[in-house]
Amino acid sequence: MKKYLLLLLSAGLFFTSCKNDDNIFPDDNGDETQKTANDYPVQNFMYQVMNSFYFWQEDVPNLADSKFESLDDPDYISFLASEPDPEAFFNGLLFEDDRFSFLREDYHDLVNSFQGISKSNGLEFGLSFFGDNSDVFGYVQYVVKDSDADKKGMKRGDIFITIDGEQLFYNSATDNNFHLFNEDSYTLGMADIVDKTITPNNIKVTLTKEEGLTENPIYLSTVIEHNGVKVGYIMYNSFIAGYDDELNEVFGNLKAENIDELVLDFRYNPGGRVTSAIQIASAVYGTNTDELFLKARYNQKIMETFDPGDGEENFVDTTFDSKTPLNTLNLKRVFVIATRATASASELVMNGLAPYVDVVHIGENTVGKNEFSNTFVDDPENNYFYNEDFEDRINPDNQWGIQPLLGRNENADGFLDYTNGLVPDYELDEDAGNLGVLGNADEPLLALALSVISGETAKRSFEPLISVDFVSSSKMFKPGAGKMLMDGLIKPLKSK
Description:
With 496 residues, the protein is an alpha+beta fold. It is 18% helix and 26% strand. Strand 1 and strand 2 form a beta hairpin. Residues 1-20 form the signal peptide. This is C-terminal processing protease CtpA/Prc, contains a PDZ domain.
């Protein structure tokens, strides 16, 4: 597996020391004082990263290489000083079509989220429209074990319609009350489904978040005997490197069971680490290390530095971190349950396998996040890339972390254009009136997959009682939502 990057910083215009004595600004008392980029560490850090690595760098006028002459250009200092709010400054550097770049005031929130650690009450839910207006209801997808939601008796299929006494509603990204889910504690107003109608039941449940709640992304793995066919089933809810060895064991168990077919359930999986995606794809298809899984496409000035083969990642025969030999099923077909909550690294697995394996998509259109990102912090010695071994070098006065989009991954056929999502082969919405038991052969989406496997699709109706009209989910309120993290693949080098 190639490890590279693309260091533009050493050659870039902006990576010089600040020496100009002409950058004079009045201070709070009206006295003239010299200002340098060092006086605006947060904005300077963000600009350096975005100018060098941002996928749409050439499409954002303020990020143009010709915009400023140097770090000590008075116009550059004025630009840094023009927006004191770091979030507004960062957002002002984004391309209009960018849906997924984001930041956090404390980079630890990003790092923890990529390890499956968060401040959470353990309730994972979806949000759906109901009625003919902007009203929204929530439906519980699953509950994290030993969380507050678990202790309060919340379970898959529960319905709620209010939060802190307010009816949930959504008119647009800015006109809704979903921000209430960010509170440390909130109270849900529950409801029942009566005659295909969502009806309040006057039950209230108050949930409180706890720091450091850890979720194992391998929610369930089992083998289902269906009409003489042994079907392996894995529900995997996030691509987290810390569970790669456990995931390898799961594939080993399925291999020992001599399964005939495999169903990967990514319905609630928003993405994560690309190396874990490569591992899963290799465990499905084979440890063919001479065959291409993905090719990364960066911004133009980065691509111009590439040699043949740079940016390419093949299938693997070991886990990425521990180098444990990989268990593989060597399948020619795989079923993937994917919905409008499925994004990023989940979509990467589907797209990367498509040239080699018959990927049968059950469910709904996916999100369409075909871009990847990386975590950056104020560590110029490491070219701003976050590295846990160098945390002592991160500027203590600037703890912001940014997660800008760096590029897109294409598969071996060169396909990467799925911004509108991957289209299902067999379409079926989740049914809020019958979510079913995950991993049970009667759960609607899994039942559809099993019916396709057995050739019985035409013999059963899968019409939902209350079709989910998906708006958002609990995972979208967490740091790193919808992430495809090139952690471990991108390596800053001293020279290119």
